Amino acid sequence: MDIFSRLIVHWEIHDSESAELASEMITRACEKQGIVRGQIKLHADNGGSMKGATMLSTLHWLGIVPSFSRPSVSDDNPFSEALFKTLKYCPAYPESGRFESIEAARLWVEKFVFWYNFVHLHSGINWVTPASRHAGIDQAILDQRKVVYEAARKQNPARWSKQTRDWSCPYIVELNPGRSSKINTNTLSQIAS
Fold first, then answer.
1. In which domain, by residue range, is 111 found?
2. Across residues 153-160, what is the average pLDDT?
3. By the 8 A CB rule, do 129 and 118 touch?
4. Is residue 164 situated within a structural domain?
5. I want to staple 127 with a disulfide (CB 3.0 to 4.6 A). Which of 36, 121, 145, 174 is the partner?
6. The pTM is what?
């Protein structure tokens, strides 16, 4: 996930977890997104697949700076945690929490990712889609909303007790305020897992 735009930039489902698979996935994600050396940080939990020698070697080779959650701190990556909750509480998610097959899981996640990236109006980025924010067209959408809201307020001022909603675009995103570096529009994709 790109934490600035909240876009799911790449996903894969396997029947096991390993540093080798994680390494291959990160390599494919970087190729898919056109990420160049030194462009991103990868924030991950402290799982073995993310801290394995193969994975760390791949990160070094790709010029990716690794960042890890603090031990026993479950909310060190609130963006990914929120995404996981959105996924698990999606009405279409199997009630049993299990898929019939790995192919069924892949098909379900493919549909979910499309919805999340291109349809879902994300509350954390002022009700635009992650794809709109990632493409840099979110400000135009928010500017248009401001015009619509201001016109509605002028037409019926009694309906509004205060100012209209703030439709400005949040330009700074922090993984953990006070702990990590800020990410702004001058910083390209930062993947969180």
1. 19-134+172-192
2. 90
3. yes
4. no
5. 121
6. 0.79
